[in-house]
């Protein structure tokens, strides 16, 4: 079964420069609408990823102090400096 995506007709006001660029990208085989749809889908995916990444950064930063302390402990354990310390 083929599922057709619902399209909504809308009107945009764009500069001549942008329309010329869209026409160059579209060439003779694609419509302006298809180019604009592709570009906006890509932009929306980018925004969604950026939002998810920002959420991940907030989570990492929330635990950064604990993670850094644990890493310092691991590095100190792995260090050979203790072999040359005076006892």
Write a short abstract of this structure.
The chain is mainly alpha-helical and 87 residues long.
Please tell me about this protein's structure:
There is one protein chain. The chain has three helices and no strands. It is an all-alpha fold.
Summary keywords:
mainly alpha, 0% strand
Query: What is the percentage of strand-forming residues?
Result: under 5%
Sheet with the most strands, sense and barrel status: none
- How many helical elements? 3
Ends distance: 78 Å
Show the helix and strand layout:
Layout: H1 16-26, H2 32-62, H3 64-78
Helix pairs in contact: 1-2
